[in-house]
C-alpha cells in the first residue's frame, strides 16, 4: 500500500487533514481502526467557550471567541492555539487560520449544515436544560440559540417510550438558567408529550433507535401531526431531544420544519449523541467524494530510519502488511480511542513518542499520577499528549522534531483540556487543516 500522504485516524482531525492534503493534489490514504471521540461528541464544533458559566446581564456580555483565544494565548504557552499563533502576540494569526480551517470544513463537508461563526459562541440548551457554548452546530441544534430567543415561548417535547430524556428536568433547569444568568432570554417554558408511532407499543427506545425510526418520512409526518394537535397557539419554539433522523436527518428535519409552525430544534446531548454519529457519517462521505482511500485496520508499529518514517505496520485479524508514504500524519486521539495507551505508564504506541503534561514528561511516570481522586479536580490525563513544533511535528525528548516527515493533529497533541478550554473540535479542525497542508507540501518536494 503506497501513497503521498498517509493519515492515521479517522476523526475530525484525521478527516480534515486527509481532505486538505487531497485538495492540494496529494494522493492520500486514511487508516483508522474505528470511530473515535468525534463520533461520540455532541456534534458541535467548540473553538473557545467560556471556562465557567458566569452570571450574565444578557447573552451579549459573553466574551467573544477572539477574546477567549487571546486569554488562552496569554495563559497557555504550550496550547496548540499558542503554537499556531507563534506566541502571545499571534492572535490575528490563529484567528485567521481558524477561519480558514472552518471555511474549509463548511465547504468540504456541506452535509454537516453548520451554523455559527468564529466570532461569537452560540448558547445552546442541552437535554438537561443546561447551556452549552459552541462556535458551530448543525442547523437543527443551532435553531435553539438562546441568544435569539428573547421572550420565546418554548415547548419541551417529551417523547413517550424514549430513554434518557426527562422533559420536566429539562424545563426546570432551563427556566432556572434563563432567569439566573440571562434574564432576557426565554419568556416561558412548557412540557408537552408526543407519541412516536413506531415506539408507542415497544420497549423503551434508545436515542439511536428513535432516530433510526425517524428516517421513515411516514413516522415524521405522524409525529408532527400528533405534536401539532397539542401545541398552544402562541408557542414560538419546539425543543426535542436529538433524534430527528439518523442517516436521513436533513430530509427529516426539512419535513418536520415544514409541518410545524413554531421553529423546531434539537437539544444538545453531551455524549454518544446521534448528532455525533451524523458528523462522523458526513466526514466519511466527504472523504469518499474527495477520493481519499479509507482503510479500516490497526496501525501497530512504524519502521523508522534515523529521522525519517519509512512505513507503517498494519495488523488486523486476517493479515499483517505495510503501508509506505512520503509523509505521515498521526491523528489517533487520546486514551479512549487508542491513540494513547495506559498500562501502568502512558504511552503513544505507534511511534513511541514522548508524552507531556504542563511542560513535564509523563510517559516515564505512572498513569495514576495523571488522575485526580477529587471529582472537582483537574484531570491531567485530559491534557496528556505530544509536544509539537510550529510545523506541527511531534517533538522528541530533546525538544527537536522526532521525524522530518511526521506531523500530528487533534487530540493526540497535549497541553490542552477540551473539557475546560471548550476547544475540542476547534483544535482538531485547525491542526488537521494545517498538517494536511504541511504533509502535502513535503510530499510534493
Ligand atoms: C464524550 C465526548 C464528547 C465530546 N463532545 C465534544 C463536543 O461536543 N464538541 C467539541 O468540540 N468537542 C467535543 N469533544 C472533544 C472532541 O470530540 C475531540 O477533541 C475530537 O473529536 C478529537 O478528534 P480527533 O480526530 O483528534 O480524535 P478522534 O475523533 O478520537 O479520532 C481518533 C481516530 O484514530 C483512530 N486510531 C487510534 N489509534 C489507532 C491505530 N493504532 N490505528 C488506526 N487508527 C487508530 C481511531 O479509531 C479514530 O478513528 C468530546 C469528547 C468526548 C470524549
Automatic annotation (TrEMBL):
Ranges where the FAD-dependent oxidoreductase 2 FAD-binding domain occurs: 4-427
A GO molecular function held by the record: glycerol-3-phosphate dehydrogenase (quinone) activity
Reported cofactor(s): FAD
Keywords assigned by UniProt, alphabetized: FAD, Flavoprotein, FMN, Oxidoreductase
GO cellular component, one term: glycerol-3-phosphate dehydrogenase (FAD) complex
Presence of keyword Protease: no
Record's protein name: FAD-binding protein
Organism this protein belongs to: Candidatus Abyssobacteria bacterium SURF_17
Taxonomic lineage: Bacteria, Pseudomonadati, Candidatus Hydrogenedentota, Candidatus Abyssobacteria
